[in-house]
Amino acid sequence: MAFSLIWNTSIRCVDGYVEIDFNISPVVRRKPEDFPGLPDNLEVIVYRKEAKDYHYNLFRNEFFETENIEEANCVFTGKPVRKSFNMFRWVDKNVEDGKVYTYWLTTKMNDRHLSPLSVRVVDKDVIWTHEKTLAESRRIAEFYKGVEFTNYGYSVKGREMFALKKGNMDRAVVIVGGIHAAEAGQFTALDVFEKFLKNKDDAFFSKIGFAVLPSANPDEAQRMAMGYTSYLRVNSAGVDLNRNFPADWDIVSDMYGLRTDDPESATYRGPRFASEPETRAVISFMKSLNPISVFSLHCYPGGITYDQFLGPGVGGEDSEYVEKCRELVIPYSKKFRKNEYPGQLFLTFGATPGSFPVWVYRNYHVPVFDMEAWDYFVRNHEGALKACRFGADIEMMNDITQRHFAGMENYLSKYIETKGL
């Protein structure tokens, strides 16, 4: 036939299974006499291939466009589950966590298969859904005395932008997770916070406060948790939130060879500053407190980020500010490292115009960093190499958060001593 009987396909990972939803062609509904027995007796053929060579940090979805159906296995022939008159679902339960699969759907009436679909089977304890982030945040707020849970806005698709707080908000340490949805976020932000709740008393929190916004890009974080295979950076409106803040926003950056004024760019700054509801929610959150330091978590899925401190580019020209950052980074890295990379300090200033760090610098003039893992570190660190291949597990995540807790605790003890608190 000259058209595909199946169209409008979507794929996702749900509870460890792969779900493929699709419609049958509207021609079947409009000309039922040409398709006797349909849609009631629709049968589909599903081919599947494990994408063993797919490397998350090197490739994007172009990888799957070149996958070869001739190398795939037929994994199903028969009737799919019917959702409505012309909507159907097929579920693959024979999949494994962590693996990436390519699928093709067709029917005996088709003369060609559909374009390939790809999905990653994710461990929901590693890649968190929005529902899990919300549930974990509420658990912490309900279990620990004095923790506030506040909603500061909604995402493009209406998901809550909530934060947790405890302690002295006039001297607040701020942790923001997942401005780039495919990068570190919810687990690290909340686990580091909970370690302070477990290990520090009221006297500590009378001196220092913590304010944590675990998921700054919840729509795309949800898509990541549903098995999207490639890197997710922008929000669901196609705007890079880390270029959308009202601080030097009008300056065009071409970092990564991409222009921030190009709507097709993965670093698109948006049609105007603070155009995105997520950006406005983060600003509202920040205006509710007085920070002494700000950490925006980046790098790899599964909450994996390191002590690679990327400060605002404009801050690197401010010698007083650079010294203030060094006073934080040196004690932090000393405890984070566990004697790795002795004598090296991964501190630089390059966060771009319109970024969250530049906005914090312009408005608060306190140490603020995108927490990253630079190429030098990745090339020389087994854990980072594993993480950049989407290989994080609970053991690795717990090790990273313990390191961040130790580093932050050491920095804050120096801060308290220096300030005479």
Write a brief structural summary:
The protein is of the alpha+beta class.
Describe the structure.
The protein is an alpha+beta fold and 421 residues long. It has two domains: 6-120, Immunoglobulin-like, CATH 2.60.40.10; 130-419, 3-Layer(aba) Sandwich (Aminopeptidase). 30% of the residues lie in helices and 23% in strands. The chain has twelve helices and 16 strands. A hairpin with a 2-residue loop joins strand 1 and strand 2 (17-24).
Neighbour order of strands in the largest sheet: 9-10-12-11-13-16-14-15
Q: Distance between termini?
A: 78 Å
Shape: elongated
Encode the helix/strand succession as letters.
EEHEHEEEEEHEEEHHEHHEEHEHEHHH
Q: Would you tell me the overall average pLDDT?
A: 94
Largest sheet: 8 strands, mixed
Helix content: 25-40%
Class by alpha and beta content: alpha+beta
Q: Please write the CATH class name of the largest domain.
A: Alpha Beta
Low-pLDDT windows of residues: none
Count of β-strands: 16
- Beta content comes to 15-25%
The name of the CATH superfamily of the largest domain reads Zn peptidases
Number of helices: 12
Question: Could you say how many structural domains there are in total?
Answer: 2
What is CATH's topology name of the largest domain?
Aminopeptidase
